[in-house]
Design brief:
alpha/beta
Length: 252
């Protein structure tokens, strides 16, 4: 049988979901697992070089066909801690924002918040590698993932993008979901869903496998990241996609 190509984000926030996938002999016989940063997973899914990805939800409008195939996701009901706008100055003093190249969803979320929540219009610049060193003075930066957890110790002002979204909309924010670009066999989906759940039942083991000193992972996995894809989270995701469609229409 042809193996199903699965792409997953390579950050700490995915470790609980990958824990069970990597420990399922039956599932690992069915898949080729690729780990990369979010923007690359999205690009692979859109190009069809993977069949399913834990993909940033901003890729959805770019897909001809898409299916959410798991009850699990990367989301936040309040502050997420690892997707933030970092600055040396208060938000109303920011003159330029450097946009993390690793995730289009987080960048688009920041653009929405700059316009509709903070009501500011700084220069927005696509960031290059090592851009974090340029976050100083009136130049702020969006940083995501493990690097954001480390950056928390270095910036005077931390604006959590998931928390700001919740304040603006009253809804949780979905950063990534398991998205397939075609129909997948139901037996695979069932096994895949069960494997996702396993790590959430063994968080102490997940944390022990991934020693990390910059941020408390128990807090991260239980208070910041929310892994279950609920109806309210889908509502939040659809609200975000509506913002993206409106922004795209305005550019036409």
């Amino acid at each position: 049988m042809k193996k199903i190509k699965v792409g997953a984000v390579s950050y700490l926030n995915t470790k609980p979901l990958l824990y069970g996938i990597k420990r399922s002999p039956a599932l690992m016989q069915m898949i080729d697992l690729i780990e990369d940063y979010p923007a690359n997973i999205a690009a692979r899914l859109a190009a069809g070089t993977i069949d399913i990805g834990l993909a940033p939800v901003a890729v959805i409008p770019k897909l001809n066909e898409w299916h959410i195939v798991s009850d699990y996701c990367i989301s936040a009901e309040n502050d997420v801690a690892s997707v933030c706008l970092f600055s040396d100055v208060a938000v109303d003093k920011i003159e330029k924002v450097l946009l993390d190249y690793q995730s289009r969803t987080s960048v688009n979320l920041c653009k929405i918040l700059l316009k509709h929540y903070w009501h500011i219009n700084p220069v927005q610049e696509e960031a290059k590698e090592h851009y974090i060193n340029a976050i100083k003075g009136t130049t702020a930066g969006v940083v995501i993932g493990d690097r954001a957890l480390k950056q928390r110790a270095n910036s005077a002002y931390i604006y959590d993008l998931a928390g700001a979204w919740k304040n603006m909309t009253g809804l949780p924010f979905v950063f990534a979901a398991w998205i397939a670009n075609s129909q997948l066999p139901q037996d695979f989906i069932t096994l895949f869903n069960e494997a996702n759940a396993l790590g959430l039942q063994h968080l102490d083991e997940v944390i022990a496998e991934n020693p990390y000193t910059a941020y408390d992972l128990h807090t991260y996995y239980t208070a910041n990241i929310s892994y279950t894809l609920t109806a309210q989270k889908i509502e939040g995701m659809n609200r975000f996609l509506d913002y993206l469609r409106t922004a795209s229409a305005a550019l036409v």
